[in-house]
Design brief:
With 268 residues, this protein is mainly beta. The chain has a single domain, classed as Jelly Rolls. It is built from 1 helix and 18 strands. The strands form 3 sheets. A 9-stranded antiparallel β-sheet has the order 4-5-6-8-17-10-11-12-13, with no helix packed on it. Strands 3, 7, 9, 14, 15, 16 and 18 form a 7-stranded antiparallel β-sheet that branches. Strands 1-2 form a two-stranded antiparallel sheet. Strand 12 and strand 13 form a beta hairpin. The chain is globular and about 45 Å long.
Length: 268
């Protein structure tokens, strides 16, 4: 909940008392960078004993809802990665188009929402799904300039922005945050990304992706999988650093930017 303290203004919007993503109402899932991760061998981020290629069995939900991301099948477990000179430590690696995790309880969103994902994609030779439930409910990266969603099986919504800079793929120096929102049915996609030297926004600075699009969908959005459309379907290929889902809340420009600053400051 919002409290008293510092504030930031953007246009006519003022946000007070920000401390972290839980400062905004409606947070139902928070998978956080380098937090609450457990490996099959018992190693944990809390103990600080994770080692390269540890198989990850659980990524704890920090929202307080205990809706953890879990995986019990060895071949499907994402890995703890210490490559890239350690810059990816803390981000589960979903490699070889073959890793995914299940939420303990599916999330069902009937109204407004905000989904924010910080990631690095390694390969998009085919579609890569961020999250989903089945072919009827998903949010994915179709290619370097095209995000797509299906909600409640009512058809595909596409945001393909040919004017913005494409996402850089397979470059260890880049991170991106994609934000997917719905407000009274109207859906938008925003992208913030780049390199640390550019304060993570030199490639895209909260770009309203394909702003000319006016997609609307009021169906229930069900989410049960992280890193896939459904179990072992349209799997992601890359790293997830943070995943936030707000139910009933559409973050404003000022609120998104507060989360961008918080997330990109998370380093080992």
């Amino acid at each position: 909940m919002l409290g008293l303290g510092n504030s930031i203004a953007s246009g006519n919007v003022v946000v007070e008392g920000y401390s972290d993503p839980a400062s905004f109402s409606g947070l139902v899932l928070w998978l956080g960078f380098n937090q609450g991760i457990t490996a099959a061998n018992g190693n944990t981020t809390a103990a600080g004993d994770m080692v390269n290629n540890d198989q990850i069995t659980q990524w704890d939900d920090l929202s307080g809802n205990t809706n953890h991301a879990v995986q019990s099948t060895s071949t499907d477990m994402p890995r703890w990665d210490t490559a890239n000179s350690g810059a990816d430590i803390g981000a589960p690696k979903f490699a070889n188009n073959a890793k995914y995790m299940d939420l303990t309880t599916p999330i069902e969103i009937t109204g407004d929402f905000t989904i924010m994902i910080r990631f690095r994609v390694n390969d998009i030779s085919t579609s890569r799904c961020f999250l989903g439930n089945a072919a009827d409910d998903l949010f994915k990266l179709h290619d370097a300039d095209d995000f797509r969603a299906i909600i409640g099986g009512s058809g595909t919504s596409s945001w393909e922005d040919t004017s913005a800079t494409d996402l850089t793929v397979a470059d260890p120096d880049y991170r991106h945050i994609v934000t997917f929102t719905r407000s009274s049915g109207a859906m938008k996609v925003y992208v913030n990304g780049g390199t640390a030297s550019g304060d993570w926004k030199d490639e895209q600075d909260d770009v309203d992706w394909d702003s000319a699009e006016s997609h609307s969908d009021t169906d229930t959005f069900t989410i049960s999988n992280i890193g896939s459309e459904a179990d072992d379907t349209t799997n992601f290929n890359g790293w997830f650093y943070d995943i936030l889902i707000y139910d009933g809340t559409t973050l404003t420009t000022a609120e998104r930017k507060l989360n961008y600053d918080y997330l990109t400051a998370q380093v080992v």
